[in-house]
Structure formats: structure tokens, C-alpha cells
Design goal:
210 residues, Alpha-Beta Plaits, elongated, plasmid
Length: 210
């Protein structure tokens, strides 16, 4: 079913960017500049919004002609592309974005045609839904776990890997004792925040060489 894979919702939004020759720099360049300064760890605006498994946002200048037998086509404007895999229903997730990071949303989408602002929660949700395309391909490797469950699993995986690497060659009795202590400590650890499990990648601002 489009947009839904297990308990995950797949969101794809294409918002047309304002084309104004009087804007200096152009609206697409202003978006790129803002995106380049966003953090990609737990301080990312999309990590601060509850339920975001992953998020990707980029400026699309045009579609690429790949040669015959396809037809050469071009977009009528540049688009802001936002993709996310998230927990819950669409309106709840979009409303959560508007509540959590309205200033960041406005700084990005204010350069798009018809954007009403995040202060009007209902208008923001309706605008995003009007720009939505069906999602039929998902990035997430799991579709039956919530974000906290996925973060907990990643944290456990990293912790176990580090434990194994640091206890090579240890005597069996000592290894058993330390593993029991390790499992107790692991169970008491809080769930890590969204965006903290990496890997972290630098944001690219566009161009043929990126």
C-alpha cells in the first residue's frame, strides 16, 4: 500500500520553489545555504520532532535525461524535496513538526510557492499534504518497530560490538562475570536520543561535483 510499510509511514513532499528574478540570492540558493548550516546529529530539527526514523531534504533543479528510449523532459520550476520515514499517521507527524520546530520550517519552506507558515498548524498540514506524492519505496531496514525501539536496538548492537572487541582473550570466568555486569548496565541505560546513533554525514549544497 502506498505511503505505509508496516507501522512506518513513508512521506515524500515536493514543494515548488519561488522563481523571482529580483531575489538576491535566488530562493533556491537561500534554501541551500540554510540547509548547509543545519546539524545532522541529535540537534537536527527533524530529530527534535518525534517519530522521525530518517529525513532527507534537498533542492531538485531538474530531472536528468538518461537517453533513449526515454523522452527528454524538464521541470517547470525547481523543487524542494522532503522525504521521511516516520512513526504514526501523517497529520500527527506533520503537526508534531509544526509544534517542535516552526522557525526551522519557516526558514526553509518560506522560499516555496504558497507556503502559509507553521504558526497556523492546520494550514501547514494542508499545504504539506497538497505537495505530497505517494511513497512506494522505503529506506528503513525495519518496518515493525517504533523509533525508540529501533534506537534501543542500535544502541544495544553498538554496545555488544564494543564489549566483544574489548574482551578478546579474557579468561572464561572473568568474561562471564563482566558480561553479566554488562547486561545489567545495558538494561539500565536510557534510550538514546534520535539522531545520536550516526553515522553523521556532511550536508551537501548541490553542484555537479557533489
Amino acid at each position: 500500500m502506498p505511503n505505509q510499510s508496516g507501522i512506518l509511514y513513508g512521506l515524500t513532499i515536493l514543494s515548488p520553489i519561488i522563481d523571482d528574478e529580483r531575489a538576491t540570492p535566488s530562493h533556491d540558493l537561500q534554501i541551500r545555504k540554510h540547509l548547509a548550516g543545519l546539524p545532522t546529529d541529535q540537534h537536527s530539527p527533524f530529530a527534535l520532532a518525534a517519530g522521525t526514523h530518517l529525513a532527507r531534504i534537498a533542492v531538485m533543479d531538474d530531472v536528468i535525461y538518461v537517453g533513449m528510449p526515454s523522452c527528454e523532459e524538464h521541470l517547470k520550476s525547481k523543487y524542494l524535496v522532503f522525504e521521511s520515514n516516520c512513526d504514526g499517521d501523517l497529520e500527527g507527524y506533520l503537526g508534531g513538526l509544526a509544534d517542535a520546530v516552526p522557525e526551522q520550517l519557516d526558514a526553509i519552506w518560506s522560499h516555496c510557492v504558497g507556503y502559509p507558515g507553521a504558526a497556523d498548524r492546520w494550514a501547514f498540514i494542508q499545504y504539506m499534504k497538497s505537495c505530497q506524492l505517494d511513497t512506494t519505496f522505503y529506506f528503513a531496514a525495519i518496518n515493525n518497530k517504533t523509533l525508540p525501539q529501533a534506537l534501543r536496538a542500535l544502541y544495544t548492537q553498538h554496545a555488544v560490538t564494543n564489549f566483544i572487541a574489548s574482551h578478546q582473550g579474557m579468561a572464561p570466568a572473568q568474561l562471564q562475570a563482566e558480561f553479566l555486569q554488562f547486561t545489567q548496565d545495558l538494561a539500565s541505560e536510557p534510550t538514546p536520543p534520535a539522531g545520536s546513533m550516526g553515522p553523521h554525514r556532511g550536508i551537501k549544497t548541490g553542484g555537479r561535483n557533489e
